[in-house]
Amino acid sequence: MSTKTDQKRFILPCFFFILFLCVLASINEVRLDSLLKFGQCVSNFSSQSDQYSTSENSINLAANSSDSSSDEDIRILIGIPTLADQYQRRHFLRLIYGTQSPVGAKIDVKFVFCNLTKEDQKVLVALEIMRYNDIIILNCKENMNKGKTLTMFSSLPEIFNDTNEQYPPYHYVMKGDDDTYLRLNSLVESLKPLPREDLYYGYVIPCRSMDPFKHYMSGMGYLVSWDIVEWIRESDIPRKEFEGPEDKVFGDWMRNGRRGKNRYNAKWSMYNYPEPPTTCTHELWPDTIAVHLLKNQEKWIRTLTYFNVTANLKPSKMYHIP
Ligand SMILES: *[C@@H]1O[C@H](CO)[C@@H](O)[C@H](O)[C@H]1NC(C)=O
Ligand SMILES: *[C@@H]1O[C@H](CO)[C@@H](O)[C@H](O)[C@H]1NC(C)=O
Ligand SMILES: *[C@@H]1O[C@H](CO)[C@@H](O)[C@H](O)[C@H]1NC(C)=O
Ligand SMILES: *[C@@H]1O[C@H](CO)[C@@H](O)[C@H](O)[C@H]1NC(C)=O
Ligand SMILES: *[C@@H]1O[C@H](CO)[C@@H](O)[C@H](O)[C@H]1NC(C)=O
């Protein structure tokens, strides 16, 4: 019939193909950049499609897709303290977190360490950053219980102080651990009903206690709201006491500074791996946010198997996994 219908038939698949390319492209970008890029893609397309005067649809789509993935999402930064030389561990944790896609949240996992000390690190770590952009190098000398946590939290407001981005850059910051398995969807679900201010969240120590005010949240992974991060940067209280077990010291800051009026004890959704059993352990069970003390490969494998992490692997002619 007329060439007009043909044109329409041609335009519609083109539009979806371009959209698909845009989505693909944005997935590979840093999350922050991806929205911008997606918006650009769509606007690039709609300026093209304006020529054909049928851009209503694309504008609608664009409006919806940017709404759904920006304003309401919970933004969480998970900082995992590690050492520059722990290349294998970072590789493994990237697999663990890169294969989870939490709904209703934007979660950035970053590896945190102090100043580089060796020549080869300058190349290897730089390559990692070029590929993954998930590393924060603090201005400090490597240490575990001599203020690295303080340096991390108090550096974040400046690192993420981009006036062109949303404020706060993250609603919550979690200090993670490289032997903790976090299930991001469960974490997000548990955070949804909670306040976004003055929140101190985790697995309360001592292990037998269920009272989030006694005494502090375990280093397996504790989370605070962004206002507390800014308070740590500005207050004298953390600077007066930062030596000692970092999780306990953090709890002291909260108590002495009267912070964390909102507290949430995620026990027994967070727990230590069942073997060897102690008062801090729990059996693996479905209602899990975090499993801690995954000190060897066997424990990781058992945990990942229990949670069916690889069950949805797509069939393909390229491989066969029994
Ligand atoms: C969109 O177009 C602008 C200008 O034409 C260009 O700079 C930009 O890279 C394009 N964006 C994408 C994602 O193609
Ligand atoms: C966009 O969202 C509105 C309201 O949420 C909905 O009514 C509309 O159908 C959506 N449009 C598209 C193209 O998904
Ligand atoms: C860390 O490195 C920076 C830049 O190279 C340097 O200015 C700073 O003094 C170093 N800090 C420590 C604690 O060594
Ligand atoms: C953030 O940037 C603004 C403007 O550039 C500056 O005034 C402010 O001091 C910065 N804050 C931090 C914590 O670096
Ligand atoms: C894992 O999959 C099995 C079999 O489908 C199911 O019975 C089990 O409940 C799943 N486990 C979890 C933690 O979802």
TrEMBL record:
Pathway: Protein modification; protein glycosylation. InterPro entries: Glyco_trans_31 (IPR002659). Keywords: Glycosyltransferase, Golgi apparatus, Manganese, Membrane, Signal-anchor, Transferase, Transmembrane, Transmembrane helix. It comes from the Eukaryota. The lineage of its organism: Eukaryota, Viridiplantae, Streptophyta, Embryophyta, Tracheophyta. It is a single-pass type II membrane protein. Its cofactor is Mn(2+). It comes from Quillaja saponaria (Soap bark tree). GO terms for molecular function: hexosyltransferase activity. One of its GO terms (cellular component) is Golgi membrane. This is Hexosyltransferase. Belongs to the glycosyltransferase 31 family.
